[in-house]
Amino acid sequence: MISGRRMAHMAPPISPNGAAPRCEHLDGLEPVTPLSDGCRDCEAHQDHWVALLVCLSCGWVACCDVSPNQHAKAHYEETDHPLVGSLEPGSHRRWCYVHQRQV
Length: 103
Fold this sequence. Notes:
Layout: H1 40-44, E1 52-55, E2 61-63, H2 71-79, E3 83-86, E4 94-96, E5 101-102
Antiparallel strand pairs: 1-2, 1-3, 3-4, 4-5
InterPro entries: Znf_RING/FYVE/PHD, Znf_UBP
GO molecular function, one term: zinc ion binding
Protein name: UBP-type domain-containing protein
């Protein structure tokens, strides 16, 4: 049996009006301040990352899922914090690990 947090919901990746579908994990979300300027786990092992994500629950900064170590995903698996946001300048992209889609 697949746990609830691992099961991808069957919602389409983009709604008919072109916007990302609603995600209940956004409800009550408060702004967070990134806790670092880089992925501390990668830095500790002198590894590199492709892009950085910030946990929207606690501010933890980690490398993205395209990066070799996927520390943002590991943070989700350890904490159940479902949402991350891009730290790329000007980006408003957010990802929900529960729904496995942009929100």
